[in-house]
Write a structure and sequence with these properties.
Number of helices: 9
Strand content: under 5%
Distance between the termini: 79 Å
Helix content: 55-70%
Radius of gyration: 37 Å
Shape: flat
Structural class: mainly alpha
């Protein structure tokens, strides 16, 4: 606590205040982080963990800051980059997955030839995502890019192809100019040799 705050509290107690607890203030009561909204947010997240803070705020009818405060402070939840199915399933889907696994195990135990009809392999089903979406969800950043270089198309595949094409065209133009210069230089030397004659090199050479 700073010196200014200490003086302020000293004056308050000097004026007759006896408690350091926060007093009730007049005005509109806080309604965004109510128990009902906290419960709605929890149900939405448990139903679909891929929801963003913006989507939750629109669904519940509160601001984005209030939805973020409910997730972090009331529900103690954090955003994670979860792409695999086991982390995205709802509790009901996980229960169904458990029941199906038990049914398959019972069928394999009762039917000796059941495993001969199953084709398995290494496979991972991953929900569609991109690096941009992961960064946006993890950091809570807006969808719109703020970097002017990104808005101009720097770093995208189209911009790389365009820059490669421009660089290739510039390289071809330089090669053409060099070829013309070399051809003209050879012709100039040929004219000088024809003027001086064989065995008589020119005494003045221009750069």
């Amino acid at each position: 606590m700073g010196v200014t705050q200490i003086k302020e509290w000293f004056n308050r107690f000097k004026d007759g205040r006896t408690s350091a607890e926060r007093k009730q203030r007049c005005g509109r009561p806080q309604t965004a982080r109510s128990a009902a909204n906290v419960k709605r947010v929890r149900n939405l997240v448990m139903a679909d963990r891929r929801l963003t803070v913006r989507e939750i705020a629109e669904e519940v009818g509160v601001s984005k800051d209030s939805a973020h405060a409910i997730l972090r402070e009331d529900l103690n939840m954090n955003r994670v980059a979860a792409k695999f199915v086991s982390k995205l399933l709802s509790p009901e889907q996980k229960d169904l997955r458990f029941d199906v696994a038990h049914d398959l195990l019972d069928t394999a135990n009762t039917d000796p030839g059941f495993l001969n009809t199953v084709i398995n392999g290494d496979e991972s089903w991953v929900f569609q995502s991109s690096r941009k979406e992961e960064i946006s969800q993890n950091t809570g950043r807006e969808e719109e890019e703020t970097d002017p270089r990104r808005r101009a198309g720097y770093g995208t595949e189209d911009s790389k192809t365009a820059r490669h094409s421009k660089g290739k065209e510039a390289s071809e133009r330089r090669q053409v100019r060099r070829g013309r210069f070399s051809r003209e230089l050879l012709r100039e030397r040929e004219r000088r040799c024809s003027k001086t004659g064989p065995g008589r090199p020119s005494t003045s050479v221009k750069a």
